[in-house]
Amino acid sequence: MNRAIFLDRDGTINEDVGYFCTPDKLKFIPGAIEAIKMLQNDFLIFIVTNQSGIGMNTFTEKEFLQFNDFFEALLKHEGIIVTKVYYCPHTKKEGCICHKPKPYFLRQAEREHGIDLKNSYVIGDHPHDIEMAHEVGAGSVYLLTGHGTKHKHELALLPQPDFISNNIYEAATWIMKIRKTEKQEVGKNG
Ligand SMILES: [Mg+2]
Ligand SMILES: [Zn+2]
């Protein structure tokens, strides 16, 4: 069984500048690359993103996929392998099966990549990322980057994240510290 990190994209890895799918609007959040590199030492990396811009005709699915290829290539150049990018192309009101907080893509990763969801984490800047993690018993980190600060009050009505973090780098450091402790425990117990 593999452990995984399910990263939101906008507001988590890159600045959330509204619906976009062109390279000129891509700006990585400081420390994001280093954070993902740290995490991939112990976890498979996935991206789970709602891309309602497709459903709203702000951009086409083809344009999204072209941008995504560019995005993944940039990460690969930095030494980061994203196992899979899962995206929901629908708007919330379409009532699809895959829009976060629905855990559809987490279940898909579980089947397709043998993911141990209970020992995996979701990292995101929206309460729906935390809700999705909770649905499958995964750990979660809520970020104050992107829309995080704006939506933080909504967390009061939801299951709590395991950690509230200033940014993805701090989140990765926190998760890796837990992993280190877990490994030491395993070592002690033989
Ligand atoms: Mg986001
Ligand atoms: Zn969907």
Question: Can you tell me the residue ranges where pLDDT is under 50 for at least 5 consecutive residues?
Answer: none
Strand content: 15-25%
Contiguous helical run count? 7
User: How many strands, which pairing sense, and closed or not: the largest β-sheet?
Assistant: 6 strands, parallel
Tell me the series of helices and strands, N- to C-terminal. EHEHHEHEHEHEH
- Give average pLDDT, whole number: 97
* First-to-last CA distance: 20 Å
> Shape, please?
globular
Rounded Rg = 16 Å
Report the helical percentage. 25-40%
Ligands present? magnesium ion, zinc ion
Strand order of the largest sheet: 3-2-1-4-5-6
In total, the number of strands is 6
Q: What does this entry look like structurally?
A:
It is a single chain. With 190 residues, this protein is an alpha/beta fold. Helix content is 39%, strand content 16%. It contains 7 helices and 6 strands; from the N terminus they run E-H-E-H-H-E-H-E-H-E-H-E-H. A 6-stranded parallel sheet has the order 3-2-1-4-5-6, sandwiched between helices. Strand 1 (4-7), helix 1 (32-39) and strand 2 form a beta-alpha-beta unit. Helix 1 packs parallel to helix 7 (168-188). The model has no long low-confidence stretch (mean pLDDT 97). The chain binds magnesium ion and zinc ion (ZN). Residues 88, 90, 96, 98-99 line the site of zinc ion (ZN). Magnesium ion is lined by residues 8, 10-12, 16, 124-126, 146.
List the helices and strands and how they pair.
Elements lengths: L3 E4 L24 H8 L4 E7 L1 H4 L5 H17 L4 E7 L15 H10 L7 E4 L2 H10 L2 E5 L4 H4 L11 E3 L2 H21 L2
Parallel strand pairs: 1-2, 1-4, 2-3, 4-5, 5-6
Helix pairs in contact: 1-7
Bound molecules: magnesium ion and zinc ion (ZN).
